[in-house]
Design goal:
By secondary structure, the protein is an alpha/beta fold. 33% of the residues lie in helices and 21% in strands. The protein folds into three domains: 265 residues, FAD/NAD(P)-binding domain; 145 residues, FAD/NAD(P)-binding domain; 31 residues. A hairpin with a 2-residue loop joins strand 13 and strand 14. It binds dihydroflavine-adenine dinucleotide (FDA).
């Protein structure tokens, strides 16, 4: 197990890999590397990770009471690659003394809070090779004879914390920087306008203040899982407030989690998708978008509908669904925010004076170009300007770039729907680890060949 005295720590100097971001994706990679190092201690991979958060955290702002995982616990960080690993969710449960209790729950879908505990438990075992509170701000190519064999990953203390700029050298870079909140055009987040990412970081403070709800209304914009979860949470947390769900759809649509459709998240589907022609890729993404995007678990839809109906029966409607309605603007004010919405069917515009506006408007992938700096110009792109990525998740580059640049995420156009999800992290991380070992072995062989040729 990677501890302070692990090979990765003792080595110093040039790391075999530096992972930027230490979310579940690079955590799964740390596990894959650790597994390799235990199997082959004679040729360890020396890995380091940079994470801008002060400690491990997986979407902390949405760890709502009762919210459950959207994947089976068997799609944890390791099982699909090696079910015998010490890092399975079942190992975690066993260590917590909850294995039998969990089995009695008869579910494949633990709560997000419990899975977060599992992630934290795994992450704690890599504390020695992870620099928390460090934001990677750039990558400098290290050139020798016109070839780039290494990079320096430059980081700064995140959020202006203590410490200065640092650079760590690596032969491989793995970018696992995840997603960034997407806001509607022209709308800015603020004191009372939050993206769902920050829901639990902001809403409880409001709930604890008697004077905070002047308008007794909170609007939630969006139609996906996070939107529906936010509506449910706010409705339960602010019993004195009206919760307005603003969605352009006619109603929440259920996520397709049926078994045949679910195969799109299998590791083998990544192979098929990767090899498919562009039109087939586009068609598959379109057909199966409803497994992941702008859809909601059926149980939650039914729960919310039941609330709406019961309130109608009781004559006090507090959960209002403004369907076929678009947010056209948000104005901030001292003790709230005004949401301007327009009905798509009648064109009628309404102003909702709110105590808070919650934007459940999704996420975008963080474009790696800015981080890559001058190296970005050496990365190959397709006709649409998207990075070309090999099956082993390595960005294709000009030949002179020997350093491996791997992507964890942002590869939906090449590797399919699992790109930003947890489903194939175990397998993908194993593939990245194998790929860099193979390239390392190739370099060693070439080096030995060159020495022999010199004799
Ligand atoms: P993730 O975003 O988790 O991690 C990236 C990390 O990089 C972050 O810790 C960030 O701080 C860090 N970082 C970013 N830039 C950096 C920089 N420049 N320097 C240093 N660190 C940097 N999927 C699924 O399959 N099943 C599910 O149940 C769910 N549930 C779910 C709930 C919610 C509320 C959300 C928002 C999303 C999901 N997802 C999901 C999808 C989600 O993308 C997925 O679960 C993982 O977060 C993907 O892990 P990553 O490590 O790729 O990104």
């Amino acid at each position: 197990m990677a501890r302070d005295d692990s090979p990765a720590e003792r080595g110093g100097g040039v790391a075999d890999l530096v992972g930027v971001g230490f979310g579940p994706a690079n955590l799964a990679l740390a596990i894959a590397v650790d597994d390799h190092n235990r199997r082959s201690p004679e040729r360890p991979v020396r890995a380091r990770f940079l994470e801008r958060q002060e400690r491990f955290g997986w979407h902390r702002g949405m760890l709502l009471d009762g919210a459950t995982m959207q994947v089976s616990f068997l799609k944890d960080l390791v099982t699909l690659r090696d079910p015998r690993s010490r890092f399975t969710f079942l190992s975690y449960l066993e260590g917590q003394g909850r294995l039998a209790d969990f089995i009695n729950l008869r579910t494949f879908h633990p709560t997000r809070r419990e899975f977060h505990g599992y992630f934290e438990w795994c992450a704690a075992q890599f504390a020695g090779i992870t620099a928390y509170g460090r934001q990677a701000v750039g990558v400098r190519p290290v050139e020798s004879d016109g070839r780039v064999g290494e990079v320096e990953v430059v980081s700064e203390p995140a959020g202006g914390g203590a410490g200065g700029r640092e650079a760590v050298r690596a032969r491989n870079l793995v970018i696992g920087t995840g997603l960034t909140p997407r806001l509607p055009a022209g709308v800015e987040a603020g004191e009372r306008v939050w993206h769902t990412r920050d829901l639990l970081l902001r809403a409880p403070a409001l709930a604890g203040r008697a004077d905070a709800l002047r308008h007794r209304r909170i609007a939630v914009v969006g139609a996906g899982q996070s939107a529906a979860e936010a509506v449910e949470y706010l409705h339960r947390t602010f019993p004195e407030a009206e919760i307005c769900a603003v969605l352009t759809r006619y109603g929440y649509s259920p996520a397709d989690d049926s078994p045949f459709a679910n195969r799109i998240f299998d590791p083998s589907a990544v192979d098929e998708f990767y090899r498919a022609p562009e039109e087939a890729k586009r068609a598959l993404l379109d057909h199966h978008a409803n497994t992941n995007y702008a859809v909601v678990d059926r149980d939650l839809i039914e729960q919310l509908y039941r609330v709406v109906y019961d309130e109608k029966v009781a004559g006090r409607e507090r959960l209002r669904v403004l369907n076929a309605t678009r947010l056209t603007g948000v104005e901030h004010d001292a003790d709230g925010a005004r949401a301007v919405v327009r009905s798509l069917t009648t064109g009628e515009e309404r102003v909702l004076d709110c105590d808070a506006v919650v934007l459940a408007t999704g996420y975008a992938h963080v474009d790696p170009h800015a981080l890559l700096g001058p190296l970005a110009a050496s990365c190959l792109t397709d006709g649409q300007g998207r990075l070309r990525v090999d099956r082993d998740h390595r960005v294709l580059t000009e030949n002179r770039v020997e350093v491996g640049i791997y992507l964890q995420g942002g590869t939906e156009h090449t590797h399919g729907l699992t790109s930003s999800l947890l489903s194939t992290l175990a397998v993908r991380s194993g593939e990245i680890c194998d790929s860099l070992l193979l390239r390392q072995a190739g370099r060693t062989l070439r080096g030995e060949g060159a020495v022999r040729a010199g004799h």
